[in-house]
Hints:
By secondary structure, the protein is of the alpha+beta class. The chain is built from five helices and eight strands; from the N terminus they run αββαβαββαβββα.
Amino acid sequence: MLGRSGAVLAVGLSLIAVTPASAVWQQYNGHWYDLTPAGLTWTQAEQAAVAMGGHLVTINDAAENAWLLSKYDIPSDIIWIGLHQPPGSPEPGGGWVWTDGQTPQSIGYVNWAPPQPDNNLGIEDSAQMYATQPAVEGGTWNDLPGTFTGMGLVEREFDPAVPAVSHLGLLVLTMLGLCVGAWTFSRRSWNAA
Length: 193
Ligand SMILES: [Ca+2]
Ligand SMILES: [Ca+2]
């Protein structure tokens, strides 16, 4: 009886833990991309990206940058990318790091719009991608205050069409399995006694 109810509970918990899928994911080079809702600071956009099963985008080369611009050329809003500058970094060009831990140096690619990053007013620590309009050069990057609000460009490594159980879900299922196993074992021991 517990086995059946345990299985039902496990299925329920796994469904809760399933990463929500969006209807507008677009695939490129084995990764999937989408936008967060609008009106988010850089940090909120990254949190939304994580909730969507990914992170704010890491742009590895000019081809990925060009593909992103072809799909997400949105002049009406700030489009956050995953490049961020921790507090205390040497200004204006030091310390920049992508959400996945890679750096422009480790990747060997940047696409700042000259003279960016400029740390304007001394408060710019988060990167946007310019649209083709009204910027002079679409697809280039600019540092902005992370407190500004816009949409985040999300990149995830796993197919959104295949629901992925989160680490928490796996942990819960493992614990549940151990409990059911222990209960079954103890019951057999009791019956054998
Ligand atoms: Ca800065
Ligand atoms: Ca700037």
